[in-house]
Amino acid sequence: MLVSMAARERQRLDPGWDDAGDWWGLGAFLLLLALLAVAELIIPARQVAREDARRLPTNFGFGLINGGLAAMLPLSAVIAAEWARGEGIGLFNLVAVPAPITTTATVLLRSLLAYLLHRLFHASPWLWRIHRVHHCDTALDLSTGFRSHPLELMLIAAGASAAAILLGLSPEALLAYELAAIALVLATHANWRLPERLDRPLRWLLVTPAMHHVHHSAHQPETDSNYGEVFSVWDRLLGTYSRPERRATIRLGLGERYDPEAAKLAAQLLLPLRDPSAGPLKSR
To answer: What pTM, to 2 d.p., does this model score?
Structure first.
């Protein structure tokens, strides 16, 4: 899935990258999944209800669909950045800038773009129709990290690719960021908790599970907060940070009128076509 796409991009950047590298990448991804699954069992953030298992086919179904699309469509910020470098277009490809500055700027700008796009998906009624599929999940665990509508991933990839070309971002730094983002997105959606003495200092810089779980609250002011993907600093600087003080007691999802269809893959794929003010779905 995402790993195969990342491996393909890594091979484009380094022709010497061979199949052994692909296997190492897949092994690292599977090890991460295993570690997070164990963490969910040993230190869960909240108790898992038996009915929560009904969500799993839908969540992993989205993962399979999105993985298939990622493998077929050559839409990627890393590929776009590599193309821009070859064509000599984009800000950092036109201005002589030391490599460390380009690398740092790429990571910061890409993370800021992720924050802004996420916030836009909440602010725009039309984009919210797509993004609410992710928020409809009535529980949070490792599978939630795979639950995104294909349209959302394609729009984000298009936006990130455009930014990579216009700014002339470093493809190597972008690849490193994307790999880190995949790992952190899975970790912050998983049903586990860090000890507060670790979580509190970490979330001054990085998004932590406790911080992101607040974003999945059914209480709209909390849903519309903590938009960061990797770094928490953008939420703090731009006034959208919400402290995770009651992470174990918050209601997850979007409310009771969304719950009956949350575990139905076909209904969730068609959810963007439904007017949120019509039928049983609440308006936003």
So the answer is: 0.88
